[in-house]
Amino acid sequence: MYPLKFQPILKERLWGGTKLKDVLGKPIESEITGESWELSAVAGDVSVVSNGSLSGTSLQTLIDKDAEKLLGKSVVERFGKDFPILIKFIDAKQDLSIQLHPNDALAKERHNSFGKTEMWYIMDADEGANLIVGFNKDVEKEEYAKSLEEDTLLDLLNYEEVKEGDTFFINTGKIHAIGAGVLLAEIQQTSDVTYRVFDFNRRDKNGNLRELHTEQALEAIDYEKKDDFKVAYGNEPDQVNNMVACPYFTTNYMDLTADIVQNVESRDSFTIYMCVGGEAIVENEEGSATIKKGETLLVGADTQEIRLKSKGAKLLEVTI
């Protein structure tokens, strides 16, 4: 199976802006587009191939036809025919709501879903832009609940100023929010389960407050202050630099200044490339495709060798 590109699934959001168009070249007319779902098998939002002979075919159709060929035998053994990763680009013109995600056990019990472990790679940030990640001290459940009642939650939260290249790992239970002025790449478990706990008292275009999930979140939050979220990673040119390795995905950073060849015969997983800078050609035994900044590509698990051709590209490589 040749390297596959997909049509972006564009999502308007109350907090969205125009960077997905202005910086990444997405085909957008809206002034409030917040997300581009690059690779998704979420029901109702399944990605469709945009290149080559399989153009117009859905990702789920390809999986149903030959899951092991596309996903890898070990991935199928763990997840069946459910594509386990959701890939997005996110543009926050305004602050996102403060939220968290339940772990696998709680998500399965309450929503028959995976939990939502995720990571962020900052692609662009306005001066002074920040993220909220975790608490600034250990917090008791009662103290947290009181802060919601008294509208003082923001006083308990940890703020991180960000710049291009900064990377964050957000495990389940960690309270978090993307701040205004941030454009990022997001890699996450396939799940759309989010508990929103504070939305800055904003109203939508119809004047309504958005739903909060106060009670559901109480048992899902990690109330302990932890400094486990900022990812340190190497940036050796033309090498595979590991960023994150967790049970749900492995992400590597690649800064290409020359062509390289990867033997992936023993990988037993699909490979995703997110281009976060420059442009590259990705080739395997069945064909090739070009990706530029803001594009994503999928290489099937049946591939033996991947050839990456570029004199200047920054890629996030994602496998299981």
Descriptive account of the structure:
- This protein is mainly β and 320 residues long.
- The protein has helices at residues 19-22, 59-65, 67-71, 73-79, 104-111, 141-149, 214-218, and strands at residues 4-5, 9-17, 33-39, 41-42, 45-46, 85-92, 98-100, 118-125, 130-135, 157-161, 167-170, 176-178, 182-189, 195-198, 241-245, 250-256, 260-263, 271-284, 287-292, 296-299, 305-309, 313-319.
- A hairpin with a 2-residue loop joins strand 4 (41-42) and strand 5 (45-46).
- The two termini are 18 Å apart.
- The model has no long low-confidence stretch (mean pLDDT 96).
Structural class: mainly beta
Radius of gyration: 20 Å
Poorly predicted residue ranges = none
Distance between the termini: 18 Å
What percentage of residues falls in helices of 4 or more residues? 10-25%
Characterize the largest beta sheet: strand count, sense, and whether it forms a barrel: 9 strands, antiparallel
The overall pLDDT, averaged over residues, is 96
H-E order:
EEHEEEHHHEEHEEHEEEEEHEEEEEEEE
How many beta-strand elements?
22
Strand content: 35-45%
Number of helices: 7
Shape: globular
Secondary structure: elements and pairs:
Blueprint: E1 4-5, E2 9-17, H1 19-22, E3 33-39, E4 41-42, E5 45-46, H2 59-65, H3 67-71, H4 73-79, E6 85-92, E7 98-100, H5 104-111, E8 118-125, E9 130-135, H6 141-149, E10 157-161, E11 167-170, E12 176-178, E13 182-189, E14 195-198, H7 214-218, E15 241-245, E16 250-256, E17 260-263, E18 271-284, E19 287-292, E20 296-299, E21 305-309, E22 313-319
Antiparallel strand pairs: 1-20, 2-3, 3-6, 4-5, 6-13, 7-14, 8-11, 8-13, 9-10, 9-12, 15-16, 16-22, 17-21, 18-19, 18-20, 18-21, 18-22
